[in-house]
Amino acid sequence: MDAPNPKRPCLVPLGTSSIENPCSLPIAPDFNQSNIDLTISSFLSLSDLPLFSLPLSIGCSFDRVLDNVIPSIAGTSRDEFDQDRFLDRTLQLASLLYKSTKRCIRKRATLQNSTSWPLLPELTIKVFSMLDTKSLMQASACCTMFNKCAMDRVCYSHIDLTTAAEDVDNGVVCVMIHRAGKELRSLKLGSISSSAEPTTSLLTRSCLTPLTFNHGFTGGHLRSLHLYHLRMIDCGSLSPVLSACLNLTDLKIVGLISGSRDNPLEQLGLLTRNCRLIEHLFIEIYGAAGLITDSSLLEFAANCPNLSSISLLGFLLNDAILQKLIKGFRRLKHINLSSSPEISGCFFRGLELCGKDSPLETLILRDCYILKESEVLLFLNSLLAGDFKYIRLIDVSNVDGLVCDGGNRTFEPRFPIEELKKQRSNVTFVAIFESQSSLSSSSSGEVYSDGTSSWTSNYNSAEEEHDNDLDSV
């Protein structure tokens, strides 16, 4: 093929628009579209020749042509500019050829998939709707046909961006919510890892604002919202969003920021004011929350009449407030009050009257610093007496042990394990105690696990079963 004439005017300017839109290339007066197609066809017909190394290879021809053309441009007042422009023009043409080839490959892949893919588009969309968000994105990048199916709103009913938390920003969340539209049912954001630092997340407190667009149209269809370690997430930023989520039944927030003067239940009252359908609530707060009042407790209970699962981690709940809280929610099946520094266990005594008919299935009081051995023993005796007949899991594990007589701490509490095993064989009781001075050594304590020798597997299965129940909401 003849070398290009450097004196011939360029067919396109140096702007990048010609690369993005090949059809916008201007055509020389004496050179029509058929001539261009014929020239390109002749060039591509050289593909049977060797690409490199040999004297007749295409690569060597490129080198020779460029080496001959560049010197011929010299000798003018603008030789450097013209040489650079010629090389840029060559790169533009190479880029056009590369992009056209990629488009051709995608078209062929789409045609191949459309003829060989066994499922109809409707069934393909159904399958894609069952994928997690990360797998859906990977499938959509395979070909045009898969991408078209993956754009259906149903595929974004359950958005989970926790597996790629480091790469997700507010823009990604906005696009996902927009794609889901009225089909959005669940949304998970942030990093689930307990070691995650909120400052490393790209998401800010405004990432949920798209739920309020169009008078909360999308947020009104949401059923489940899980937020993990988002930056500066507090009640002030969440309240407007949750006000648009009137049909929310499952709310989980890990890392809610609370000030030292804030009433935590009053904050929860603000969050749940318009979410009267909530059944599952999980809140873990950062910071030292303020005191809790009876009025805030009553408001919170009135806002969530259907609550069946509550997890309040790090809250300053005392026994009196906790007793009122449990009695205020008659449908509670799962209670997790781990890391509550003011719970001693006295609230057990006030539950005796409603114990027989209580629907309580899970009670977790892990790492409650002042939890007393005597109060736990009293609760276990009530189990032996036939109370709380639906309970299946109890966890009173504590790295600091339990408070015993005289204000001392014990790592070997005296619990009626054998009696529980005989009379309540369907109950899993977890009581792991480990002193801070021997964290790396073997722990002491008593554990009962429904006829098994390993408490870990049985306990985890119970926790996972509860989490799966929440995820299926």
TrEMBL record:
Q: Which residue windows does the record flag with biased composition (Low complexity)? A: 436-454
State the Gene3D superfamilies in the record. Answer: Ribonuclease Inhibitor
Any one cellular-component term (Gene Ontology)? SCF ubiquitin ligase complex
Identify the species of origin: Arabidopsis suecica
Q: What is this protein called in UniProt? A: F-box-like domain superfamily
Q: Which GO terms describe its biological process?
A: SCF-dependent proteasomal ubiquitin-dependent protein catabolic process
Q: Which segments show compositional bias classed as Acidic residues?
A: 462-473
SUPFAM superfamilies assigned to the protein according to its UniProt record, in alphabetical order = F-box domain, RNI-like
Annotated region (Disordered) at 436-473
